[in-house]
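Help needed: design a sequence for this.
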């Protein structure tokens, strides 16, 4: 298990999956084989599988423990959820909760769940199946996400032509949390406590938030899908197929990289091993330091 100290906190990576999954050339419309060759020395085997052309993207949460409080950042895909259109996420059954327990947190001990955005692979464990119903997995947590994403996907979900939103995940992984009264939606920049804050980082989705953590002078930035893959550190102009607004996505990515070059540790949601990196500014661009 990847575990690291950030100031007074311990961050633990809770893995759901870590396998070659998305085809690189489809995932990044700007994918360039020459770039893959240039970076071949570090890309394989942790970040890219050159044989198959598949990106190796991790799906994990970060468990942040500080002063006895437990905060879960991004909630993966979840178990038993029908996702026919994304076969490798369909009806998953992983020992995610066992891994969370091994890291020191039972579901009822989670104080806060934070979703960087409301896509299917960041909200799944918000709920679990109990007697045929989707109920909050973390009954004592407040769940934090942006009001902008919620309103955006609510409108899509209610539209008979466009819904259900996000492969059905809005209905089984977001609405039950709201109905249980556990959602705390934030709008704009907001401080959640003395060490956690959020800042709007729109582009990948309209309401994506960057989650910022600071303790004892050490900083970390949980970037969700502002960046998916370490190659985007070298190529911040590369958007994924899933980025809703190309221009804003690029601007938010560059802003996150600048924040990290100024000292924040980058805590990605999908980078391959070792899953965390520092960012160096170099020659007008950036490079990851694992
Ligand atoms: Zn994602």
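Sure. Designed sequence:
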């Amino acid at each position: 298990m990847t575990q690291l100290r950030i100031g007074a906190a311990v961050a633990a990576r809770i893995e759901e999956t870590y396998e070659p999954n998305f085809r690189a050339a489809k995932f990044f419309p700007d994918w360039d084989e020459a770039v893959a060759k240039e970076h071949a020395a570090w890309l394989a085997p942790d970040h890219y599988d050159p044989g198959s052309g598949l990106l190796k993207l991790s799906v994990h949460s970060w468990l942040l423990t500080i002063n006895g409080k437990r905060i879960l950042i991004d909630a993966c895909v979840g178990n038993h959820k029908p996702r026919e259109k994304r076969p490798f996420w369909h009806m998953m059954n992983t020992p995610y909760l066992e891994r969370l327990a091994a890291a020191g947190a039972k579901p009822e001990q989670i104080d806060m769940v934070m979703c960087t955005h409301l896509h299917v692979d960041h909200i799944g464990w918000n709920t679990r199946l109990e007697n045929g119903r989707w109920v909050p997995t973390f009954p004592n947590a407040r769940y934090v996400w942006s009001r902008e994403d919620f309103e955006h996907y609510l409108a899509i979900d209610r539209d008979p032509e466009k819904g259900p939103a996000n492969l059905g995940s809005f209905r089984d992984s977001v609405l039950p949390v709201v109905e249980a009264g556990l959602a705390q939606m934030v709008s704009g920049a907001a401080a959640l406590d003395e060490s956690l804050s959020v800042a709007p980082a729109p582009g990948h989705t309209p309401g994506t938030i960057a989650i910022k953590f600071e303790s004892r002078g050490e900083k970390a930035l949980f970037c969700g899908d502002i960046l998916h893959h370490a190659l985007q550190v070298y190529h911040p102009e590369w958007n994924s197929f899933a980025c809703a607004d190309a221009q804003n996505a690029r601007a938010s990515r560059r802003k996150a990289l600048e924040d990290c070059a100024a000292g924040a540790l980058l805590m990605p949601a999908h980078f391959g091993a070792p899953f965390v990196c520092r960012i160096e500014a170099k020659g007008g661009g950036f490079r990851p330091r694992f």
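The chain is about 20% helix and 30% strand.
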